[in-house]
Every structure is written in structure tokens, then in C-alpha cells.
Write a structure and sequence with these properties.
8-stranded parallel sheet, TIM Barrel, 7-stranded mixed sheet, 30 helices, alpha/beta
């Protein structure tokens, strides 16, 4: 890391620390009173649950009561089942009063037993039982009718001599004035979080509802039997569940309650992990104390959003420094603005990652929750790695001052350096007229010492290959034609056959596809690069000449250009280009040394280049177009070509993985390893994204069909794919505008075409992990364009995904909680996930309309001209 990088790292570290400090600036809130009037008291601990009737021991209850004694006048219980019946007796020993509760459900037998026991416990402990509550939100849950509740209340009122009521939210009391006639006081729950009230307005809202009840029932005492705020959970409209908001609400409310003379019970003393299954994350986090019986916030000191922020800031800054050390270690030619951009990305990512881990650490993890957390961690890690790799390419492409390894066409050496070149043209079932054009261009090469070998493999129709054979004879002895049938190994097999037939004195092997028309300067300009004895591969870009035929091909052309104007140039800086099988030259001796083309791999060109790097040889890339071929005519062929490239990438990574990660000895440099892994990461991300979409659709179906049991996933599951999509889209737009010299229409066309390939790439990546190899398939040239119906059939998988994701996004918003933030973000994510599928359908339809003019996209400038070319 140079001085500029160190300076930027220090500045960003300071800014990051300042940001953490500003976000966590202290809030001065009213102090906690010396004595709280009462706590809602459920003494369940981890592994215990009211749902499974696993109760705490009396010793545990006594321990909890001892913790509250001295700080509270009373506790409110909810049931007399099991050991909970001992609460009044144990509380008396600690000097605590009790509001005794009976749990009323929709099971009559259980209700009878609960009420009988309530009466018995009351009579045995009446000295410290100040109130009795029959049922908790029973009417809200619609488990009993009002007449049924009145019957229960009257029975208890006749059997005990303490004031009796039932506990319900404020609106239930306003809705049922007949209920008020049968209670001694109104036991009201004021929980503004559940109503989506922002914390800044929550205390005033409680006062508003309290006063509303007082006006409606002026003769009835009002006791607030639950009032509180959760420290974690879903954001409900404007109500954010957080530790800071919990502390803020409670400290403000308690001050207001003391001022106004309210009788209240804070909801609640201890976090109840078991409530998570019924009420979601928020249900487990209402306690003033956590499940370990530790206070969750300061009772008197100024409040901060994240009390541990200094530790988190230090961790995030340390991670950022490590990331920047890796990103800056080979950035000598990068401008300061590029390093600044990487620093912003690194610090943002590190802060985000630390926050995710911290946020999950605040939750109570069940086994399923732990699994989800681990999945989320690795998903976040994968997204972070992809973003870092994309950001690094972005920075290098935009802010590199000087390309160190960008070669020039050396026309001076071309005068004297003329090693023999053997040009290989593999062909299979190619149109004769097209192939003749390719041969004419080769015959016109301005180079004194070359031969051309045409290898037609497995073409069955003599009317296809015999005219080409005859034409080669016309062109002279330097043009040799071979028709081989049968020949195994697909294209690699044909190229290996050509190697065996190559002239003994040929030193350079050049390969072009059968549809390419090469520039007459191709060999003259590029061959001099082989004067360097370590130079094994010289590559110029794939380019195309039919981009003006229609709008579809203009879109494809714009999409192709990105890799050759951006990716190949940045890879060339670390001697890590992808060797692609046309417009390439390879040293003959190196070909012999590594054993020729790999017939097991359908992307034999990229695999060959990697093997050459593993031997320690060099390669170079000249970003000037020396030949133009033909693009796929239809979207289905466009997809097949990209499937082959992506599938081949997986197979290559699997075959060379130990060498790429350094577990097998090779001559690969760190830069080469980085580019061969990072360069294919976006494709691997597409594969993972396909699996994510299946899981997201399945989860959404569960959310729609079983809304009471299937909650939306953690919001980060939606934020991650959204972030990755936005980042990649911005990167594509900016780089196309700057590095590919594309206008707005061309940039959008390239982005649309690239998105349209997302699904087929994803399929290829997944298939590549579960299969060992598939057959080679060529990309047809001059194929008949698709009709519109056929175009839809060609994108039927994408169309089905599009429909499913859009319907899922709509359906999930129809839930009762469809307006909540996590639901809205999840629906947004599903909608964004549908965009690549929509792009596929649209591009396929465009390919089925070949009459659409390429002028809709516009003619792109020629590929960057080599500055050394004269």
C-alpha cells in the first residue's frame, strides 16, 4: 500500500468512526424512577414455554422475584398453572404485591380448572394479592364471546374480595361498554408498537387513549396492565423495534405516569423466548431484562442507539483496513479517486457486515433460527465478495492512469520478424458461401509466411463441405482442407486434428471461427509480440459485423462489447486474460508442451489459456478489432452460446480448483488466481440467485397460505439481492458510458441483453455443479429468425418465473400485515428479481421481430484502436 492508499485509509477510518459516533450520539431522557409500580411477570426461561407447559422451578421464580424486589411494588401474573401458582406466596416473602391472573382460552374444561385454581390460590394468599384478572386479551383473540367472559367474571367476583377485571386493549373496552358493567376496574393494554405508532409519538398516544377511556367511563378506575416496547422485531409501519427505542419509550412513559398518577405494569420484566413462535421476533423482546436476567439498557445514563458502538466501530474499521490492504496492494497506476471509491465501498461493506452480525447476536436463536442465521451469513459473505470484485473492476476500468501491459502493434518489427503461422479454421455444417468469405479474407493477409487449414468435422451433406474443399484448391497449396467424419472431441477434436496436420516449420498457431473476416494486417501487427520468448498467447477481441441488421443484433453487439473493452483490459494488467477461441494466436511449442486442446471441455479455449498460465507463460491482449464474425440470429441461440460459456467456466473451475486456490503447485500468480476466480463470480452469483428465487417463492407461498405461521424472513434476505442488483446495474451503466463509449440507448440495450441472459447463466452454473460434462453445441449462423410465438416458447422458463414472481409480490401484500416494512421490502425484492426474466421475454420477442431497425439502438464506435498502429 503506497502513501496515497495509507492516507485514504486513515481518512476513511476517521470518517467511519465519526459516523458511528454521530449515529450513537447520546439522548438525554428522564431517569428511571426509584420504584416501578409493577411489572408484567412471566418467569419462563430459555427452553421453558407456556405453550408446552414446561414451567420454571419455584427456585427460579424466587430468583426472578428477588431481582425485582426493591425496584418494584408489584408483579402481574398470567396463569396459575403449574409452579406459577406459587408466585403470590413467593412474592410475599420478597415484599411484592401481586395482580393474580387466570388464563382463559377457547377450551371450556381448561377454563373451569384455571378459574377453580385461581380462587383457591387467591384465598390462600389474599394478603398480598391486590387485584385479580380473568383472561388476557381473550376477546381480542376471539376465543370467548362477551357473554362468556361476563359469566367468568361474575363467578370470580362472587368468590374473591379483591377488585376483578379482564385485560384487553383499549379499543375492546370502547367497543363493549356492556363489559365494563361487570368489572371493578378497566385493565387496559397500551402497546403503541403493535399499532405502528412512531416512538416519538408513542407516549402521547398512550395518554390520548387513557384519557379517551376516562371520558367514556368516568366512574371506573383504570389500570394500565401492559405498557411497553420491544427491543427487537419487525418494523410495524412507523414503529421501529430497537433497544434504544424501548429505553426511550419506557423512560418517557414512566416519567409521564408518575406525573399523571397512573397505575401501571411495565410489559414486561423478562424477555420471553417462547413467545417468538406466536408473536415473531418482537414477542421475545419485551423484557426490561433479557433472558439472562441482565438489564438491556441504562436506567439513568444518557441513551445511545448501540451501547457497544465503539467495539463495533473498531471491528468494522479493522476489517476495512484488511480489505483495503488487499485492494491497494497492486494499485500503483490507479488514480486517487479510484482508491477513494474502493475505500468507500470497503468501509460500507465492513460496516454492513458487522451490523448484520451484531443484529443477529441480539436475537434468541432456536435451531431453525441458527440455521437461518448461518445461511444469511454466507449469503451476505457471498454478496460482499461479489460486490468487492465488481467494485475493484469498476475502479480499475475507470481510474487507471496508465495501462502497464497494454501492447502496441509493432509495425517496425513486423518488417523483419516473420515466423510461420498456421491458421486453423474449424467448421461444422457451415454455409459454404460464408466460409468462402472467410477464406478470401485470409488469402488477402499482408504476411509472407502462413498456411491455412480448414477442418470440417462430421458434416454429413457433401453439398455443404465439397464446395469449400474445391475453393481451397483454387486458393493454392497454402490452403488445405480436411473433411473428417467421424471425429470425436467436437471443436477441440477438430483443432487437435489440425495440430497434427500443421506444417513442421510453423511456429505460431492461429485460430479463427469459420464466420470471421479478418483484417489484412492481423498477422503482421500481432505476430511481433512473440519476439518475447515467454509470450505464449496473443489475443485480439471477438468482434462482429452484422450489428446493423436489426435491433436484436445491435443489442447483442452492445452486450458483447463490455467484456472486450473492460474485462479483458483489466485482466491483461495481471497477465490473466481469458483465451477465447477465435482471433487468437498460440506458440506452437507451448501447444505441444501442454498437450493441445482439451477435448473433455466445451470451452476448450479458456481452459487452454489457464493451462498455459499454470506453466508460467505470458499472454497479451490488443484491444483493436482485427476480425469480425457473425452473431447469433435468435435469442435461443444467443442463450445457447452463453450457456456453453458459463457451463464451461464451472467445469474449468472444478477441474483446476486445487491449482486456483493454491493447494497444488503451479506457476499461477496471485493476480491470475484472483481474476480467474473473481471474473466468474458474477456468474456463480447468478446460479445462487436461481436457488434463492426457488426458496423465495416457496417461502412466499407459505407466507400467503399460512400467514399465522410463516412470517416474512429477516429483512436482510431482501436487502442483499436488492443491493447487489443496484450495484451491478450502476456499474454496468457507468462503465459502458466511459469505457465502451456507449450512449444512453446503447448502455440500456447492453444492460437489457445482459439481464436477459441471467437465467440461462444461472442454469448453466447449477448444471455445471451437478454434472460432469455435456455435449458441445455450436452457435448457428444465418439461422432463420424466430416468429413471435416461437420467441415466447424460447423464453418459456423465464416467462413462468416472471409470472410467478410478480404474482408472489402482489399476493404477499394482500396479507393483513401487507403494509409493514418487511413485507413491502420483500415484495419489492420479488419484483426486482423478476426484472431479468422480464428482460429475457422482451429480448426474445425483439429477436422474433427482425424487421426492427438497428437504428433504434444506434451504431457503436469501432473497438478501441491500438495507439501504436500506423
Amino acid at each position: 500500500m503506497n502513501r496515497s492508499g495509507i492516507f485514504i485509509t486513515i481518512i476513511m477510518g476517521g470518517l467511519a468512526a465519526l459516523l458511528w459516533m454521530l449515529v450513537n450520539s447520546p439522548d438525554i431522557e428522564p431517569p428511571w424512577p426509584d420504584m416501578v409500580q409493577g411489572f408484567s411477570f412471566s418467569p419462563y426461561r430459555a427452553g421453558q414455554s407456556a405453550e408446552t407447559n414446561i414451567f420454571p422451578s419455584e427456585a427460579e421464580i424466587e430468583e426472578d422475584l428477588a431481582l425485582l424486589a426493591g425496584d418494584s411494588h408489584a408483579v402481574r401474573s398470567y396463569s396459575v398453572k403449574g409452579t406459577l401458582a406459587a408466585i403470590p406466596r413467593l412474592a410475599a416473602d420478597k415484599g411484592l404485591n401481586v395482580v393474580l391472573g387466570a388464563w382463559i382460552s377457547n377450551i371450556d374444561k381448561d377454563n373451569e380448572e384455571e378459574i377453580d385454581k385461581l380462587i383457591k390460590v387467591y384465598r390462600e394468599n389474599h394478603r398480598n394479592i391486590v387485584r385479580v384478572i380473568v383472561g388476557n386479551e381473550t376477546l381480542l383473540r376471539t376465543e370467548q364471546t362477551v357473554p362468556q367472559m361476563i359469566e367468568h367474571l361474575e363467578r370470580v367476583r362472587k368468590s374473591v374480595w379483591a377488585p376483578v377485571s379482564c385485560a384487553e386493549p383499549w379499543h375492546i373496552w370502547l367497543k363493549h361498554p356492556e363489559l365494563v358493567e361487570h368489572v371493578d376496574f378497566i385493565a387496559v393494554h397500551l402497546l403503541p408498537y403493535w399499532e405502528g405508532i412512531p416512538v416519538e409519538e408513542a407516549v402521547n398516544y398512550c395518554v390520548l387513549r387513557y384519557n379517551e377511556l376516562r371520558r367514556e367511563y368516568p366512574d371506573k378506575p383504570i389500570v394500565i396492565t401492559e405498557v411497553g416496547w420491544p427491543s427487537n422485531g419487525r418494523t410495524r409501519e412507523q414503529a421501529v423495534a430497537s433497544q434504544a427505542n424501548q429505553a426511550k419509550f419506557l423512560r418517557r412513559f414512566l416519567a409521564t405516569a408518575e406525573k399523571n398518577g397512573y397505575t401501571y405494569y411495565v410489559m414486561e420484566a423478562f424477555d420471553q423466548v417462547w413467545k417468538k413462535s406466536a408473536e415473531g421476533e418482537a414477542g421475545a423482546h419485551w423484557g426490561v431484562y433479557n433472558a439472562k436476567r441482565l438489564p438491556k439498557f441504562s436506567f439513568r445514563e444518557p441513551l445511545v442507539a448501540v451501547p457497544q458502538w465503539r467495539d463495533l466501530a473498531a471491528i468494522s474499521i479493522a476489517i476495512s483496513v484488511v480489505l483495503l490492504f488487499l485492494l491497494f496492494r497492486d494499485s500503483g497506476t490507479m488514480k486517487t479517486s479510484g482508491r477513494g471509491f474502493l475505500a468507500v465501498i470497503a468501509f460500507s461493506i465492513a460496516t454492513f457486515a458487522v451490523w448484520i452480525v451484531y443484529d443477529f447476536s441480539q436475537q434468541y436463536m432456536s435451531t431453525s433460527g441458527l440455521i437461518v442465521g448461518i445461511v444469511l451469513f454466507f449469503a451476505a459473505l457471498g454478496a460482499i465478495v461479489v460486490i468487492i470484485a465488481e467494485a475493484h473492476e469498476w475502479a480499475e476500468a475507470l481510474w487507471t492512469r496508465d495501462w502497464r501491459r497494454l501492447p502496441h502493434a509493432d509495425t517496425d518489427q513486423a518488417i523483419t520478424f516473420h515466423p510461420k503461422v498456421s491458421v486453423h479454421v474449424p467448421a461444422y455444417n457451415e454455409p459454404p458461401d460464408m466460409l468462402k468469405q472467410t477464406l478470401d479474407a485470409l488469402a488477402a493477409l499482408d504476411y509472407p509466411n502462413f498456411e491455412v487449414l480448414v477442418i470440417d468435422n462430421n458434416t454429413k451433406d457433401p453439398a455443404v463441405w465439397q464446395p469449400v474443399e474445391a475453393y481451397c484448391r483454387e486458393l493454392g497449396p497454402s490452403f488445405r482442407f480436411f473433411h473428417v467424419d467421424p471425429l470425436a472431441g467436437f471443436k477441440a477434436g477438430a483443432l487437435n486434428y489440425a495440430l497434427r496436420e500443421t506444417a513442421p516449420d510453423a511456429e505460431i498457431i492461429a485460430v479463427i471461427d469459420s464466420d470471421y473476416i479478418v483484417d489484412h494486417n492481423w498477422l503482421r501487427d500481432l505476430v511481433p509480440q512473440f519476439r518475447d520468448p515467454k509470450m505464449a498467447v496473443v489475443q485480439s477481441p471477438q468482434d462482429y459485423r452484422d450489428d446493423t441488421e436489426n435491433a436484436f443484433k445491435a443489442m447483442c453487439y452492445a452486450e458483447y462489447r463490455g467484456f472486450f473493452n473492460i474485462g479483458m483490459i483489466t485482466r491483461n494488467e495481471r497477465n490473466a486474460i481469458i483465451q477465447h477461441g477465435t482471433m487468437t494466436m498460440v506458440r506452437r511449442s507451448v501447444m505441444d508442451e501442454i498437450g493441445g486442446w482439451a477435448e473433455w471441455c466445451i470451452t476448450e479455449d479458456a481452459e487452454l489459456g489457464l493451462r498455459i498460465f499454470e506453466k508460467g507463460y505470458s499472454a497479451t491482449y490488443l484491444p483493436h478489432s482485427y476480425g469480425q464474425g457473425l452473431m447469433p440470429d435468435t435469442f435461443i441461440d444467443f442463450k445457447k452460446q452463453r450457456f456453453r460459456w458459463a457451463y464451461g467456466a464451472v467445469i474449468i473451475v472444478r477441474h483446476h480448483l486445487m491449482k486456483l486456490i493454491g493447494l497444488e503447485s503451479t506457476n499461477l500468480t496471485l493476480g491470475q488466481r484472483y481474476h480467474f476466480i473473481a471474473g466468474w463470480l458474477p456468474w456463480f452469483a447468478d446460479g445462487i440467485n436461481l436457488l434463492f428465487n426457488f426458496a423465495a417463492l416457496a417461502w412466499t407461498v407459505g407466507m400467503v397460505l399460512f400467514p399465522l405461521y410463516v412470517a416474512p424472513p429477516h429483512i436482510i434476505f431482501a436487502v442483499l439481492p436488492l443491493t447487489l442488483f443496484v450495484f451491478k446495474s450502476l456499474k454496468m451503466f457507468f462503465l459502458y458510458r466511459r469505457r465502451v463509449a456507449a450512449n444512453m440507448r446503447q448502455s440500456l440495450a447492453a444492460g437489457l441483453a445482459g439481464l436477459a441472459l441471467s437465467h440461462v447463466i444461472a442454469r448453466a452454473m447449477v448444471t455445471g455443479f451437478i454434472t460432469r460434462g455435456i455435449g458441445f453445441f455450436r452457435t448457428p449462423k444465418r439461422a432463420k429468425a424466430n416468429a413471435l410465438l416461437q420467441a415466447l416458447l424460447d423464453s418459456r422458463e423465464e416467462l413462468l418465473f416472471l409470472i410467478a414472481l410478480v404474482l408472489a409480490a402482489y399476493a404477499v401484500q394482500q396479507r393483513a400485515d401487507g403494509g409493514m416494512l418487511d413485507i413491502r421490502v420483500w415484495a419489492l425484492m420479488m419484483s426486482v428479481q423478476s426484472v431479468p426474466y422480464a428482460a429475457s421475454v422482451l429480448v426474445s420477442l425483439i429477436s422474433g421481430m427482425p424487421w426492427l431497425s438497428s437504428r433504434l439502438i444506434g451504431k457503436m464506435r469501432p473497438l478501441e484502436t491500438d495507439p501504436g498502429r500506423k
